[in-house]
Fold this protein.
Amino acid sequence: MKELIVISGKGGTGKTSILASFAALASSKVLADCDVDAADLHLILAPTPESTHEFWSGNEAQIRQDDCTRCGDCFELCRFESINAIPAEQGLRYEVDPTACEGCGVCFDRCPANAIDFPESLCGEWYLSQTRYGSMVHAHLGIAAENSGKLVSLVRQQAKERAVKEGKDLVLVDGPPGIGCPVIASITGASLVLIVTEPTLSGAHDLKRLVELTQHFRIPAAVCVNKWDLNEAMCLSIEESARAMGVTPVGRIRYDAAVTAAQVADKSLPEFNGKGAAADVAALWERVNQLLEQIGD
């Protein structure tokens, strides 16, 4: 079984539209949306959940008001300013701001009255669903919730287990943007990473950072330039830079208003039409599929 991860330097580059198109074109696959901080693959694929699971991770301080002596030690010790001092009838009342608490546990350890609990946090949910293109694992991370990297790893693992159970050959992953912890969690151990970029200076800069990241973890990578015809000279420069870094350019996708129209219609590009950008994506998939076939399991 092989695993293809589609990533980009920033959001809005087009990786989700490309991944949804690959979902329509690939014959034997399970899908995973690892962009858990801003998941949107479900907007195109309209998954129907088969099962919903809670995601618990990290800890969050909670002050028991009946046991609190109002000494203020927690307020003084918290380096993240997550303890609020609120005027009350008997002096100050201390409360934890759950959106600011980093879960370090200092207040829990140092409270002289042992009036602070430190339970595990409910950070979100993950889902096993069915789409018109087969099984899909995806997730929703709560507002200000931590450990998105851990949730990404969980989604990938569940997708691979589902692929084994169904006898599928490929896991297609919509990865997070950037180069942070969630991206690292999404690409480590992958068969191939497809980097989607745009013909701009920021696109060229993002490509360099992403290539360095994939090479650090020794993961094969390929690059695709989306909306290449908006700046042909920059597109050529990006492809030349990619080759110089040892990464193969495998496709170009033209600017096409049909991409937005397909999104509005809740369809992937191959479903919407077979022309323009849809034909470019089909050619891109052929090249990517050839690379996957050259890579061992």
Remarks:
- The CA atoms of residues 4 and 192 lie 5 Å apart.
- The first helix runs from residue 15 to 25.
